[in-house]
Amino acid sequence: MRRPSDRSWGAPTYGARFVSHLRERLVRAPNGPGNTGHSSKMNRLAETAERVPVLIAGGSLVGLSASLFLGRLEIGHLLVEKHPRTSHHPRGRGNNIRTMELYRTAGVESAIREAAAVLADNHGIMQTPSLAGEEHNWLFRDIDPGGKAARISPSAWCLCSQNDLEPVLLKAAQDLGGDLRFGTELLSFEQDADGVTAVILDRRTEARSTVRADYLIAADGPRSPVREALGIGQSGHGELFHNVSITFRAKRLADVVGDRRFIACYLTNPEADGALLPVDNQEQWVFHAPWHPERGEALEEFTDERCAQHIRTAIGMPDLEVEITGKAPWHAAERVADTYGFGRVFLAGDSAHE
Protein backbone atom coordinates (compact mmCIF):
# COMPACT_ATOMS: atom_id res chain seq x y z
CA MET A 1 0.00 0.00 0.00
CA ARG A 2 1.25 3.48 -0.84
CA ARG A 3 0.81 5.60 2.24
CA PRO A 4 -0.90 8.95 1.81
CA SER A 5 1.09 11.77 3.29
CA ASP A 6 -0.39 13.75 6.19
CA ARG A 7 2.27 16.33 5.53
CA SER A 8 3.28 19.25 7.68
CA TRP A 9 2.13 22.37 5.94
CA GLY A 10 4.54 25.23 5.42
CA ALA A 11 1.90 27.76 4.39
CA PRO A 12 2.91 30.53 6.81
CA THR A 13 6.58 30.00 5.96
CA TYR A 14 5.80 30.84 2.33
CA GLY A 15 3.54 33.68 3.38
CA ALA A 16 6.09 35.23 5.71
CA ARG A 17 8.91 34.87 3.19
CA PHE A 18 6.97 36.49 0.37
CA VAL A 19 5.61 39.25 2.60
CA SER A 20 9.11 40.13 3.83
CA HIS A 21 10.42 40.23 0.27
CA LEU A 22 7.46 42.22 -1.01
CA ARG A 23 7.71 44.73 1.80
CA GLU A 24 11.33 45.48 0.90
CA ARG A 25 10.48 45.88 -2.78
CA LEU A 26 7.43 48.05 -2.07
CA VAL A 27 9.53 50.35 0.09
CA ARG A 28 12.29 50.58 -2.55
CA ALA A 29 9.70 50.85 -5.40
CA PRO A 30 11.91 49.20 -8.03
CA ASN A 31 11.08 49.03 -11.70
CA GLY A 32 11.46 45.25 -11.51
CA PRO A 33 12.58 42.72 -14.12
CA GLY A 34 10.48 40.64 -16.41
CA ASN A 35 8.73 43.20 -18.59
CA THR A 36 6.32 41.07 -20.58
CA GLY A 37 4.88 43.97 -22.48
CA HIS A 38 1.47 45.58 -22.10
CA SER A 39 -1.23 45.44 -24.74
CA SER A 40 -3.08 48.62 -25.66
CA LYS A 41 -6.28 47.04 -24.31
CA MET A 42 -4.61 46.35 -20.98
CA ASN A 43 -3.25 49.91 -20.91
CA ARG A 44 -6.80 51.24 -21.20
CA LEU A 45 -8.03 48.84 -18.52
CA ALA A 46 -5.18 49.83 -16.21
CA GLU A 47 -6.23 53.48 -16.35
CA THR A 48 -9.62 52.69 -14.75
CA ALA A 49 -8.59 49.67 -12.67
CA GLU A 50 -8.96 49.15 -8.95
CA ARG A 51 -5.49 49.63 -7.47
CA VAL A 52 -3.86 47.55 -4.74
CA PRO A 53 -0.23 46.94 -3.75
CA VAL A 54 -0.61 43.13 -3.84
CA LEU A 55 -3.06 40.80 -5.58
CA ILE A 56 -3.27 37.22 -4.24
CA ALA A 57 -4.71 34.51 -6.49
CA GLY A 58 -5.94 31.62 -4.34
CA GLY A 59 -7.63 31.54 -0.95
CA SER A 60 -6.49 28.26 0.58
CA LEU A 61 -3.84 27.92 3.30
CA VAL A 62 -1.00 29.68 1.48
CA GLY A 63 -3.09 32.53 0.11
CA LEU A 64 -4.86 33.09 3.43
CA SER A 65 -1.52 33.05 5.27
CA ALA A 66 -0.06 35.58 2.84
CA SER A 67 -3.09 37.81 3.44
CA LEU A 68 -2.66 37.48 7.19
CA PHE A 69 1.01 38.48 7.13
CA LEU A 70 0.42 41.34 4.70
CA GLY A 71 -2.34 42.61 6.97
CA ARG A 72 -0.03 42.58 9.99
CA LEU A 73 2.37 44.83 8.06
CA GLU A 74 -0.49 47.09 6.92
CA ILE A 75 0.20 46.33 3.26
CA GLY A 76 -2.94 46.69 1.21
CA HIS A 77 -3.98 43.66 -0.78
CA LEU A 78 -6.82 41.87 -2.52
CA LEU A 79 -7.30 38.09 -2.39
CA VAL A 80 -9.48 36.34 -4.98
CA GLU A 81 -10.61 32.71 -4.68
CA LYS A 82 -12.86 31.07 -7.25
CA HIS A 83 -14.58 28.74 -4.77
CA PRO A 84 -17.48 30.22 -2.78
CA ARG A 85 -16.10 29.31 0.63
CA THR A 86 -13.16 27.81 2.48
CA SER A 87 -12.47 24.07 2.25
CA HIS A 88 -15.03 21.76 3.84
CA HIS A 89 -13.08 18.51 3.33
CA PRO A 90 -10.64 17.46 6.12
CA ARG A 91 -7.08 17.30 4.78
CA GLY A 92 -3.57 18.72 5.22
CA ARG A 93 -3.75 18.31 8.99
CA GLY A 94 -0.13 18.43 10.16
CA ASN A 95 1.19 21.86 11.18
CA ASN A 96 4.83 21.71 12.21
CA ILE A 97 6.58 23.73 14.90
CA ARG A 98 7.89 26.47 12.58
CA THR A 99 4.41 26.86 11.12
CA MET A 100 2.93 27.31 14.58
CA GLU A 101 5.70 29.73 15.57
CA LEU A 102 4.78 31.96 12.65
CA TYR A 103 1.09 31.73 13.44
CA ARG A 104 2.00 32.64 17.04
CA THR A 105 3.78 35.75 15.72
CA ALA A 106 0.64 36.58 13.74
CA GLY A 107 -1.47 36.27 16.89
CA VAL A 108 -3.59 33.32 15.80
CA GLU A 109 -1.91 30.33 17.47
CA SER A 110 -4.40 30.14 20.34
CA ALA A 111 -7.38 30.35 17.98
CA ILE A 112 -5.92 27.54 15.86
CA ARG A 113 -5.37 25.32 18.89
CA GLU A 114 -8.93 25.99 19.98
CA ALA A 115 -10.19 24.93 16.55
CA ALA A 116 -8.02 21.80 16.81
CA ALA A 117 -8.94 20.93 20.40
CA VAL A 118 -10.93 17.79 19.51
CA LEU A 119 -7.74 16.08 18.22
CA ALA A 120 -5.34 17.52 20.80
CA ASP A 121 -4.79 14.11 22.43
CA ASN A 122 -4.21 12.19 19.19
CA HIS A 123 -0.61 11.13 18.66
CA GLY A 124 1.33 8.68 16.55
CA ILE A 125 0.87 6.58 13.43
CA MET A 126 -0.42 3.02 13.78
CA GLN A 127 -0.41 0.10 11.34
CA THR A 128 -2.58 -3.00 11.55
CA PRO A 129 -4.21 -5.58 9.26
CA SER A 130 -7.52 -5.06 11.10
CA LEU A 131 -8.80 -2.75 13.82
CA ALA A 132 -11.08 -5.54 15.01
CA GLY A 133 -8.10 -7.67 16.05
CA GLU A 134 -5.46 -7.26 18.73
CA GLU A 135 -2.47 -7.11 16.40
CA HIS A 136 -1.15 -3.62 15.73
CA ASN A 137 2.17 -1.82 15.42
CA TRP A 138 2.95 1.79 16.27
CA LEU A 139 5.24 3.26 13.63
CA PHE A 140 5.80 6.06 16.12
CA ARG A 141 3.91 7.18 19.23
CA ASP A 142 5.08 10.73 19.90
CA ILE A 143 5.70 13.59 17.50
CA ASP A 144 8.29 15.05 19.90
CA PRO A 145 9.87 12.14 21.79
CA GLY A 146 11.69 13.31 24.88
CA GLY A 147 10.30 16.81 24.57
CA LYS A 148 13.41 18.12 22.79
CA ALA A 149 11.52 20.62 20.63
CA ALA A 150 9.62 21.94 23.65
CA ARG A 151 12.92 23.08 25.17
CA ILE A 152 13.76 25.36 22.27
CA SER A 153 10.38 26.68 21.09
CA PRO A 154 7.33 28.23 22.76
CA SER A 155 5.14 26.50 20.16
CA ALA A 156 4.44 22.87 19.38
CA TRP A 157 3.22 20.71 16.53
CA CYS A 158 -0.56 20.98 15.99
CA LEU A 159 -3.05 18.61 14.37
CA CYS A 160 -5.58 20.93 12.73
CA SER A 161 -7.42 19.95 9.56
CA GLN A 162 -7.52 22.40 6.68
CA ASN A 163 -11.29 22.80 6.97
CA ASP A 164 -10.84 23.94 10.60
CA LEU A 165 -7.72 26.04 10.02
CA GLU A 166 -8.84 28.07 7.00
CA PRO A 167 -11.80 29.78 8.75
CA VAL A 168 -9.44 30.91 11.54
CA LEU A 169 -7.04 32.44 9.02
CA LEU A 170 -9.89 34.00 7.05
CA LYS A 171 -11.35 35.76 10.11
CA ALA A 172 -7.94 36.97 11.28
CA ALA A 173 -7.06 38.33 7.83
CA GLN A 174 -10.41 40.11 7.57
CA ASP A 175 -10.02 41.55 11.06
CA LEU A 176 -6.75 43.12 9.88
CA GLY A 177 -8.56 44.80 7.01
CA GLY A 178 -7.84 42.33 4.23
CA ASP A 179 -10.10 42.41 1.17
CA LEU A 180 -10.84 38.72 0.58
CA ARG A 181 -13.30 37.88 -2.17
CA PHE A 182 -14.47 34.29 -2.44
CA GLY A 183 -16.43 33.31 -5.53
CA THR A 184 -14.08 35.53 -7.53
CA GLU A 185 -11.72 34.16 -10.18
CA LEU A 186 -8.55 35.51 -11.76
CA LEU A 187 -9.19 35.27 -15.50
CA SER A 188 -6.04 36.82 -16.99
CA PHE A 189 -3.14 39.11 -16.25
CA GLU A 190 -0.32 41.00 -17.92
CA GLN A 191 2.70 42.53 -16.27
CA ASP A 192 5.06 45.35 -17.16
CA ALA A 193 8.01 46.99 -15.43
CA ASP A 194 5.75 48.80 -12.97
CA GLY A 195 3.09 46.29 -12.04
CA VAL A 196 0.47 43.72 -12.98
CA THR A 197 -2.91 44.33 -14.60
CA ALA A 198 -5.43 41.56 -13.98
CA VAL A 199 -9.00 40.81 -15.00
CA ILE A 200 -11.15 39.14 -12.34
CA LEU A 201 -14.63 37.61 -12.51
CA ASP A 202 -17.34 37.67 -9.85
CA ARG A 203 -18.75 34.18 -10.41
CA ARG A 204 -22.04 35.05 -8.71
CA THR A 205 -22.89 38.06 -10.89
CA GLU A 206 -20.59 37.25 -13.86
CA ALA A 207 -19.33 40.82 -13.64
CA ARG A 208 -15.74 41.41 -14.77
CA SER A 209 -13.44 44.06 -13.39
CA THR A 210 -9.80 45.10 -13.64
CA VAL A 211 -7.22 45.26 -10.87
CA ARG A 212 -3.86 47.00 -11.07
CA ALA A 213 -1.35 45.67 -8.52
CA ASP A 214 2.33 46.19 -7.83
CA TYR A 215 2.76 42.44 -7.34
CA LEU A 216 0.85 39.19 -7.88
CA ILE A 217 1.18 36.15 -5.59
CA ALA A 218 0.08 32.94 -7.30
CA ALA A 219 -1.20 30.68 -4.53
CA ASP A 220 -3.47 28.91 -7.01
CA GLY A 221 -2.54 25.28 -6.45
CA PRO A 222 -0.60 22.49 -8.19
CA ARG A 223 -2.26 23.07 -11.59
CA SER A 224 -1.57 26.80 -11.28
CA PRO A 225 -3.04 28.76 -14.23
CA VAL A 226 -0.69 31.62 -13.35
CA ARG A 227 2.38 29.39 -13.58
CA GLU A 228 1.18 28.04 -16.92
CA ALA A 229 0.51 31.56 -18.24
CA LEU A 230 4.06 32.53 -17.33
CA GLY A 231 5.39 29.48 -19.18
CA ILE A 232 7.25 28.23 -16.11
CA GLY A 233 8.00 24.52 -16.42
CA GLN A 234 8.32 21.84 -13.76
CA SER A 235 10.75 19.04 -13.03
CA GLY A 236 10.67 16.00 -10.78
CA HIS A 237 9.33 12.44 -10.69
CA GLY A 238 5.78 13.56 -11.39
CA GLU A 239 2.79 11.61 -10.13
CA LEU A 240 3.53 9.09 -7.37
CA PHE A 241 0.14 7.63 -6.43
CA HIS A 242 -3.53 8.52 -6.15
CA ASN A 243 -6.18 8.17 -3.46
CA VAL A 244 -9.84 8.93 -2.97
CA SER A 245 -10.36 10.72 0.33
CA ILE A 246 -13.69 9.57 1.76
CA THR A 247 -15.47 11.25 4.66
CA PHE A 248 -17.95 9.05 6.48
CA ARG A 249 -19.99 8.64 9.65
CA ALA A 250 -19.84 5.43 11.69
CA LYS A 251 -21.28 5.49 15.20
CA ARG A 252 -19.79 2.19 16.41
CA LEU A 253 -16.27 2.66 15.07
CA ALA A 254 -15.11 4.56 18.17
CA ASP A 255 -15.84 1.47 20.30
CA VAL A 256 -13.46 -0.58 18.15
CA VAL A 257 -10.72 2.05 18.09
CA GLY A 258 -10.94 2.41 21.87
CA ASP A 259 -8.14 4.37 23.49
CA ARG A 260 -5.83 4.09 20.47
CA ARG A 261 -5.92 7.82 19.71
CA PHE A 262 -3.83 7.83 16.52
CA ILE A 263 -3.24 10.58 13.99
CA ALA A 264 -3.62 8.00 11.23
CA CYS A 265 -3.90 4.24 11.03
CA TYR A 266 -2.61 2.35 8.00
CA LEU A 267 -4.83 -0.69 7.36
CA THR A 268 -2.99 -3.40 5.46
CA ASN A 269 -5.66 -5.95 4.56
CA PRO A 270 -4.61 -6.97 1.02
CA GLU A 271 -8.28 -7.14 0.01
CA ALA A 272 -8.96 -3.55 1.08
CA ASP A 273 -6.05 -1.41 2.25
CA GLY A 274 -6.01 2.28 3.02
CA ALA A 275 -5.60 4.79 5.81
CA LEU A 276 -8.07 5.78 8.52
CA LEU A 277 -7.98 9.25 10.09
CA PRO A 278 -10.18 10.53 12.93
CA VAL A 279 -12.13 13.78 12.59
CA ASP A 280 -13.83 13.90 16.00
CA ASN A 281 -12.77 10.52 17.52
CA GLN A 282 -16.46 9.64 17.74
CA GLU A 283 -18.60 9.43 14.59
CA GLN A 284 -16.76 11.42 11.92
CA TRP A 285 -13.83 9.81 10.07
CA VAL A 286 -11.79 10.01 6.87
CA PHE A 287 -10.58 7.04 4.84
CA HIS A 288 -7.98 7.22 2.06
CA ALA A 289 -8.70 4.47 -0.48
CA PRO A 290 -6.20 3.60 -3.23
CA TRP A 291 -7.18 4.79 -6.70
CA HIS A 292 -5.52 3.66 -9.94
CA PRO A 293 -6.39 5.98 -12.85
CA GLU A 294 -3.27 4.70 -14.62
CA ARG A 295 -5.14 1.39 -14.95
CA GLY A 296 -8.20 3.08 -16.38
CA GLU A 297 -10.05 3.22 -13.06
CA ALA A 298 -12.52 6.13 -13.13
CA LEU A 299 -13.37 8.27 -10.13
CA GLU A 300 -17.06 7.58 -10.81
CA GLU A 301 -16.44 3.92 -9.96
CA PHE A 302 -16.07 4.89 -6.30
CA THR A 303 -19.78 4.70 -5.52
CA ASP A 304 -21.06 5.07 -1.97
CA GLU A 305 -21.71 1.33 -1.83
CA ARG A 306 -18.19 0.44 -2.99
CA CYS A 307 -16.59 2.89 -0.56
CA ALA A 308 -18.64 1.66 2.40
CA GLN A 309 -17.79 -1.98 1.67
CA HIS A 310 -14.10 -1.14 1.26
CA ILE A 311 -14.09 0.62 4.65
CA ARG A 312 -15.83 -2.31 6.38
CA THR A 313 -13.37 -4.81 4.94
CA ALA A 314 -10.31 -2.69 5.74
CA ILE A 315 -11.41 -2.11 9.33
CA GLY A 316 -12.49 -5.72 9.82
CA MET A 317 -16.15 -5.05 10.73
CA PRO A 318 -18.45 -6.53 8.03
CA ASP A 319 -21.59 -5.30 9.83
CA LEU A 320 -20.38 -1.73 10.51
CA GLU A 321 -22.97 0.90 9.59
CA VAL A 322 -21.20 3.37 7.29
CA GLU A 323 -22.71 6.59 5.93
CA ILE A 324 -20.61 8.19 3.18
CA THR A 325 -20.71 11.99 3.50
CA GLY A 326 -18.15 13.11 0.92
CA LYS A 327 -15.43 12.12 -1.56
CA ALA A 328 -12.49 13.98 -3.06
CA PRO A 329 -9.58 12.83 -5.26
CA TRP A 330 -6.08 13.30 -3.93
CA HIS A 331 -2.91 13.10 -6.00
CA ALA A 332 0.56 12.63 -4.55
CA ALA A 333 3.24 14.07 -6.79
CA GLU A 334 6.85 15.21 -6.74
CA ARG A 335 7.29 18.31 -8.89
CA VAL A 336 9.06 21.63 -8.48
CA ALA A 337 8.76 24.75 -10.61
CA ASP A 338 11.84 25.68 -12.63
CA THR A 339 11.69 29.15 -11.08
CA TYR A 340 9.57 30.54 -8.25
CA GLY A 341 8.65 33.74 -10.03
CA PHE A 342 9.04 36.02 -12.99
CA GLY A 343 9.12 39.79 -12.84
CA ARG A 344 6.44 40.94 -10.43
CA VAL A 345 4.68 37.57 -10.14
CA PHE A 346 5.63 35.05 -7.45
CA LEU A 347 4.64 31.39 -7.07
CA ALA A 348 3.72 30.17 -3.59
CA GLY A 349 2.77 26.81 -2.09
CA ASP A 350 1.70 24.01 -4.43
CA SER A 351 2.05 26.23 -7.48
CA ALA A 352 5.80 26.26 -6.73
CA HIS A 353 6.18 22.65 -5.63
CA GLU A 354 4.22 19.56 -4.67
TrEMBL record:
Residues 52-353 form the FAD-binding domain. The lineage of its organism: Bacteria, Bacillati, Actinomycetota, Actinomycetes, Kitasatosporales. Its cofactor is FAD. PANTHER family: BINDING MONOOXYGENASE, PUTATIVE (JCVI)-RELATED, TRK SYSTEM POTASSIUM UPTAKE PROTEIN. It comes from Streptomyces himastatinicus ATCC 53653. InterPro entries: FAD-bd, FAD/NAD-bd_sf, RIFMO-like. GO terms for molecular function: FAD binding; oxidoreductase activity, acting on paired donors, with incorporation or reduction of molecular oxygen, NAD(P)H as one donor, and incorporation of one atom of oxygen. Gene3D superfamilies: D-Amino Acid Oxidase, subunit A, domain 2 (3.30.9.10), FAD/NAD(P)-binding domain (3.50.50.60). This is Putative polyketide hydroxylase. Keywords: FAD, Flavoprotein.
